[in-house]
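User: My collaborator sent over this chain with a note saying "see what the structure looks like." That's all I know about it. Can you take a look?
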Amino acid sequence: MKEPLYEKDLTTMKYDILVSQRHDRMVREIAADLGVPQLKVRRYIMDHFDMILMENLPARYEQGKRVQEEAPEPERYLGAYLYTHAVPLIGEDCMDEIISGVKEMIRGGTSMDQAVLSGKSRLREAIAP
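Assistant: Without extra context I'll predict from the sequence alone. Here is the result:
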């Protein structure tokens, strides 16, 4: 008797999806944006996303980038919509805390660039501790 598919380890299938051309390009862009090694981004996605979400990630990512362009300043630079809704790497609560921290830093006199770098650092910690 065959074992049901849902009981099998899908790691190989997930990896095959993530190394396809469109997925690989997306992973590379996310890794470069966040300053995280590509392997850690792949591993995070494989561990946290189901197959249906994974298969649709490149389209969601492209749409998320378009929506992201309309976001207000610190959210746009941090990728708030992109990394919480389009490619849900970060929970909304965590992202809200990061955005609040960045805005507080800006109000305290820190430059936008420095505050965003600090926020990206916190994003890295959340994805690849």
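A starting point for your reply to your collaborator: The chain has one domain: 11-127.
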